[in-house]
Amino acid sequence: MQATRTLARSARKPQAKPRPPVLVLLRAALWGVLASLGLVVLYAVALRQNWLGTDTMGAATTAIKVLCAAFAGLLARRATGSRYWLWGMLGSVLYSLLAFLLFSLLSQTFILSLAILSDVAMAAAAGLFGVLVWQMFK
User: pLDDT digits over 15-71, tens only?
Assistant: First the structure.
């Protein structure tokens, strides 16, 4: 009887340990930055091929930032089992800061201005909105 209990216990799959929320946030922000890099490269190709004019640059960069922030927020919502909106917002804010650092390094200019605060606020709103819409249709 004891042997069958031991076999039954060992047949169960071990439960996966939950990842620390900080690691989930960092991973979500990094995926958002990678998506942002990919979209920027696609946009640069479209500009180079003259498929889009330079007058679309402001709208395209804003759209890329919002889409990638929402993507990072959706990935970050898995940090815990509750308060998805908070984790989505934090993931998108972290994405915004990492994207600013990366693109500042790539352009070799590091200029702090109030525009960064508006980018962070826009990213927070995009992450929050993305997670709320996700929860609504889930």
Answer: 667 778 788 889 999 999 999 999 999 999 999 998 888 888 889 989 999 999 999
Each as own residue / partner, the long-range contacts of residues 117-121 (CB below 8 Å, 24 or more positions apart, any chain) are 119/65, 120/93, 120/96
120: Cα within 13 Å, side-chain hemisphere: 13
Closest by CA position to 76, among listed 129, 27, 18: 27
The CA-atom distances, in angstroms, between 24 and each of 14, 65, 73, 90, 115 are 21, 20, 11, 11, 27
Phi and psi at 14, nearest 5°, equal -70, 140
